[in-house]
Structures are given as structure tokens and as C-alpha cells.
Amino acid sequence: MTCKRRNNGRNKHNRGHNKFVRCLNCSRCVPKDKAIKRFNVRNMVEAAAVRDLQEASVYEEYAIPKIYVKLHYCVSCAIHSRVVRVRSVVDRRNRLPPPRFRFTRITEYG
């Protein structure tokens, strides 16, 4: 039998069993090593209200707190909501993470 992936779609090497997590979208039980995981970091306040908060705040330099959420998806929901894409047989062999595009600040001098 041919195998589609080197790890059989899981990260369970030499472990007999894994705990289940619930999919964020459909609440399906998915093994933790098979679930597609994304770590989401957002500001607690949306961008439109940041300026209003800064004007109303007593403190001059106040760091707005962030929300840290770990998202778990089942494979079908991750594909459906385009968290991951279907790749060709050749591209499936590529195990490197996709390139990260960092935000660069433009600083003006003068």
C-alpha cells in the first residue's frame, strides 16, 4: 500500500495514544497531534478604538493588552476555511514552514 505522507498525517511518533482536542469550527474530536494548530495574537481593542482610548487615558504610555488564543482545526475545516491548502504530490514532500512576512516599520529621519 502506498503511503500519502511520511508521517501519516500525524505527529505521533512512538506514542500509543494522544488526547483529543475539539475543532474550533465544528467541534469534532481530533487527536491533538493531527489537529491543525494556529496561534493567534490580537490586540484586545480593535484598531478603530485605539486612538479614542489613548486620548481618554490618564497614562501617556499605556500598552494595550493582547489576546493570545491557540486555535485547533480538524483537517476538513482547515481546508474548507483555507487555513491550509491542498498541495500536489511533489509539494507535499516539502516539510518546511511557509515563509514568514514580517512587518517592517518605516522610520523617517529629519
Order of helices and strands: EEEHEHH
Uncertain runs: none
* Number of helical elements: 3
Largest sheet: 2 strands, antiparallel
**Proportion in β-strands:** 15-25%
Q: What general outline do the C-alpha atoms trace?
A: elongated
How many whole angstroms does the radius of gyration measure?
20 Å
With strands numbered from the N-terminus, the spatial order across the biggest sheet is 1-2
Give the beta-strand count. Answer: 4
Helix content: 10-25%
Mean pLDDT: 91
> Strand pairing plus helix content: what structural class?
alpha+beta
N- and C-termini, Cα separation: 67 Å
Main features:
20% strand, 4 strands, two-stranded antiparallel ribbon, alpha+beta, 110 residues
Structure report:
The chain is elongated, with a radius of gyration of 20 Å. Helix content is 18%, strand content 20%. The strands form two sheets. A two-stranded antiparallel sheet has the order 1-2. The protein has a two-stranded antiparallel sheet with strand order 3-4. It is built from three helices and four strands. The chain is α+β, with helices and mostly antiparallel strands and 110 residues long. The mean pLDDT is 91. The longest helix has 10 residues, at 47-56. A hairpin with a 6-residue loop joins strand 1 (20-22) and strand 2.
